[in-house]
Amino acid sequence: xxxxxxxxxxxxxxxxxxxxxxxxxxxxxxxxxxxxxxxxxxxxxxxxxxxxxxxxxxxxxxxxxxxxxxxxxxxxxxxxxxxxxxxxxxxxxxxxxxxxxxxxxxxxxxxxxxxxxxxxxxxxxxxxxxxxxxxxxxxxxxxxxxxxxxxxxxxxxxxxxxxxxxxxxxxxxxxxxxxxxxxxxxxxxxxxxxxxxxxxxxxxxxxxxxxxxxxxxxxxxxxxxxxxxxxxxxxxxxxxxxxxxxxxxxxxxxxxxxxxxxxxxxxxxxxxxxx
Length: 275
Known about the structure:
transmembrane helix
C-alpha cells in the first residue's frame, strides 16, 4: 500500500511539473503510466483503459487550475482568445469522453501510440516551422509585450478556431490528455502566440476541457477516486513547481527530454498492440 502511494505521488508530481513547464498538462504521461501499471501488470487494482483515461481527466482539472492561477499572476494567459478556443474545445471534450467507452486495450495502445509519436514530432518541429500568416486580419489582431520588451502580433479568427478546437476537444476526452499537447503547438504555429502566453493559455484551456470531459467520465463511472486523491495532491504541488521553473529556465531541454520519452512510449504502445 505504501509503495503504491509513493508511486502515485511520483506519477502525479512529475507529470504535473513537466506538463506545466511545456503547457501540455501531464495527461499524456499519466494515462499510459496508469494503463501500464494497472492493465498490463495489475499493480494498480481496478484500473481499466477507460478508468485510466477518466482518472487522468479529473487530475488535469486540478493541474490546469493550479497552473492557470500561477500563469495569471505573471500575465501569461490570454483570457479573451482562450475563451474563443473553448467554444469548440468544450463540446468536443464531452463527445470524446463518451467515445472512449469503445476503446479496447489493443486499440488504445495503437491509437494512443500513434498520437504520442505525432505530438513528439510536433514538439520537435514547433520552433522550426514558420508561423502561418494567412489569418492576419486587423479586426482579430492583438499585441503582446513580453518581459524583455519584445512585441508580438497575433490573431485568432473565431470560425477556424472553433473547427480546430472541436477536433482537439474530441481527442482530449477520448484519451484524457487535456488537449494542451495539441493546443500549444497550434497556438505557436498557426495563431502565432508568444511562447510563454501559449503555455499559460494552454493550461487555462486544459482546466476547462478537463472539467467537461470529466463530467462524461464520471457519469460513466470511469474514475478511480482512491488513486485520484493522491494524484491530485501531488499534481497541485507539481504544477506550482512547473510554473516557477517555466519562469526561471528555458523549456527547450525539458521539451527535448519529453519528446524523446514520448517517442519511446509511442513506439512501445504500437508494438504492444501488434504483438
